[in-house]
Amino acid sequence: MLRADATRNRSQLLQVATRVFASAGTEPSMRAIAREAGVGIATLYRHFPTRESLVDAVYRDQVARLTDSARELLAQLPPPAALRRWMELFGDWIATKNGMLGTLHAMIESGEIAHAQTQAGLLAAIDDILNAGRMTGELRADVTAEDIAASLIGIFTVARPPEHDARASRLLNILMDGLRPAP
Q: Could you tell me the CATH number of the domain that includes residue 94?
């Protein structure tokens, strides 16, 4: 079990690494992440002995946050608003992968990260929101989670945040308009 300060350091490192990965055009160095987190490189390596272990931790943390947020959003918002907000969180998740893409691809190829498991979790989260919207009659019944995922990947490939936030927002609004049942 980690001491309280070690737990805080690990959490701080995950938060900073997530932010650095999201804003980086290329994979940042471990030293740059440690510096940004305000810890020594030894502290970073104590928690994450390899770049892969850090990427894995950030990736798993982000997937868990994204999948858990579907239920949380539905508890707070009507299904269409929950879905729209979840789409923004998906865009943030995509942006986080920018600075770890090379390592992430290698880990998926080697089987270190189970892409199919991630995909299943994300599709289940989308299904939860779609099903809630279908029950209230606020979202179309003929749209699948796979349709939403493919649309989001397309939107965030064309309009990558943060440079194209306005375009991504406009495209998400158009998608949401298409998800509402015809009057």
A: 1.10.357.10
> Is 93:81 a contact under the CB 8 Å cutoff?
no
Note the pLDDT tens digit of each residue in 88-145. Answer: 999 988 888 878 888 888 888 888 888 888 899 999 999 999 999 999 999 999 999 9
Range of the domain at 169: 52-179
For 14-57, what is each residue's pLDDT tens digit? 999 999 988 877 789 999 999 999 888 998 999 999 999 999 99
Q: Which alpha helices (H) appear in 24-113, and where do they start and end?
A: 30-37, 41-47, 51-76, 79-96, 101-110
State the pTM of this model.
0.84
Q: Does any domain span residue 40?
A: no
Rounded distance between C-alpha atoms, residue 94 and residue 144, angstroms: 20
User: Does a structural domain hold residue 20?
Assistant: no
Domain count, the chain: 1
Q: How far apart are CA 183 and CA 98, in angstroms?
A: 40
Rg from Cα positions in the chain: 18
